[in-house]
Amino acid sequence: MPVDYEKIISTDLSSLHDAATAWKNMGKRFGELHDNYRDHVHDAVWADTTRAWSGQGANVFLNQATITQGEYAAARDEAKAVGGMLQDAYEILKPLRQAVIDTAEDAEQSWLNVSPEGRCAIDFDKVPAEYQQQYRHDATLRTAREDLWNGKIAKAVEAVQTADANIKKALMSEGGDLSAFNGGFNSSLKGDIGETRAGRAGELYDKIQDGEKLSDKERAELNRIMVANENDPEFSRTLLTSLGGPEGTIRVHNELAERAYADDTGNKKRHLTLDAHLANVLRTATTVDGKDTAADKRFYEQWREDLKEAGVKKYEVDFTDYDHTDAQDVRGYQSIVTLMQQGGGYDDQFLHDLADDIRAAEDEDKGGDKDIWDLRGTFAGEQQKDGTFDDSRKGWFANDPLDGVLGIMSKDPGAATAYLDPGTEAGKDRLQYLEHDRDWENVDTSKGYGKTHEIPGGPDIEDADTRTGFGAALEAAMTGNVPGTEGSEDFARHSPAEIRVLEHVVTEYAEAAKVDKGAIPENMRQNFANALAFYPQDVNDILGMRGNLPSEMNDVDIDRLTMNQFIRGVAEDGTAFRTIHDSQMEVIAGDVHSLGAEDFEKGSADAGKVAREGGQVMGALDHIRADVLGSDRDDEINRNNWNKTYQYHAAGALVTGTPILGDTIQRLIDIGAGQHAENLNNEVTDKTTEELIAHYSKNGYPRLEQMFVERADQVGLDTPDMRKEPFQNQVLGEASDGYSFGIDDAEGSTGVQE
Fold it and tell me: Given 33, 294, 610, 730, which residue has the most CB atoms within 10 angstroms?
């Protein structure tokens, strides 16, 4: 029967610690007895080389003495092992018990009483006066609060119960059957609970590797073992070793993947759960955290060496069939990266080494084979409207393992920044390889296959999701933020390494876009736009008044010409352009919102600066938009893309997650980024670039003017005041001049006209 809340709270675990110490002392004493018996009894008989006492009696005595000495050794080893396991149990249970206590105390602080059985109920004496009536008359509200904390306590209790059951299994797994030792001591008992439980987990995973199906009872047992132990380094190292190292781990994963995606799709979730446990074990085993550094390093170094061999080896699987052709062999690195995508939190060094080892296998300059990952057919899955790829068919498989590792690395921005930092020789070399030297074409079409027969093929091509991992890693490296998650309150400030990556990316890809406006890879454009949205003030400085000086907030050293060229290349994707555009409209709106009545009445220097900078930024972005829509390149697709992009939405939900506080500033943002911006895309069909520039020059600036008028109205200026010279000349005049400058300056940057 599992322990309950009351038992957990009342138990004094110090007795467990005392028991562990007693068992260890017992082991020490048995060791002394073993040595004493060896020196004074067993070895004394053998010391007489003449064997004065011989015959059957002597032989029987010597045999018995040898057995007795062995029993002393076994007793010593078993006592030490039990002591170690009890100490493990103490160290595991102590923080889990404390978590139950802490949760109950937090519930008490949240206006609840906690019963001896761990059930929560509202205590009206604790409810603040302003909420008393609400809680007394709203049973639903009371129940919701009680259920929330009941759930938290139950979860903490369940963690103790799971650990307790795991400890029980470990203590019984090798010491319960003494018949194998003729009633003697169990010298093979392991002193680490994780190591002990790894043996059973290995048996069950071996059955999977051998193609056997686990019973429901076995699967539940394996899940329980993994949940309780997958964060234990000794368990993880022992399990992976018992599976046969990297090769065995790859084979287990491949078998689970086959079942999930081909042979037993009805139970896909079950198979992927066991696969995810294996990924978590891999994470734990390859982490060198200093707790047992020597053991961690020994395992890590051996694992990495073995993986270099297993990673390039071929494995037959049946989930890579393409249009009903025979299954294809995959490489070990493709499988291991696919496995890792099920987990996260990997050690930075492991991610870096794995990426470098995969590169070594493919880089011809390092003796690799550039076609090593080539497979027939696409593995990108179906592309969705938002540009992501649905993995319901094959998008889950890491056919490009280097891009896959980079995608995993993007979940750890610090690791991505360190790996791609151009301030280091290694970082510069990696960027050179990934941006210029690498062969990204890993779809083999040398033999084309139709639905029913073979058709002539062609050269290798890129898969549809090529560089998605690289783009995500660059975004993480530039921003310090996991792609797709909200930024922190301090999202706009960055480390020197992040800034170095940003400067490199903008400069590198602006150079490419200067020659070919479509040169920035399609799957990276949104990542680059997201990155600029994490540097809103810096981009504003560069496009605005500071021009060719380093930006103020992060000292970003990129000139205006380069930034315009970069944004123009990113703007081939309309959604990516809107990300940049709307983040800049937020900056402009914030600057306008900072002005007061006196600024407008007197035409202050601050008002003039805000007006000119806002105009320059808005003008530059409007010119870039005109240039995209007027381009002959892929004209129809671009226009359709942009028309869908500028359907109205409320601002304030950008990639940075910055909150927009207050209706007054929201109205300013809506003018710059909402319906007014959308209306600028109307009636642009069949216009030349020059006509579009004229269109935006005429219709783009008025929304900036309206932002100033709106703000002046908010701070109390009436219409006659707005007609006066300071507002008209020092504010609106500066804004108009800045807008015209931005339009003209961007025209030179994008090279639209000769």
Answer: 610
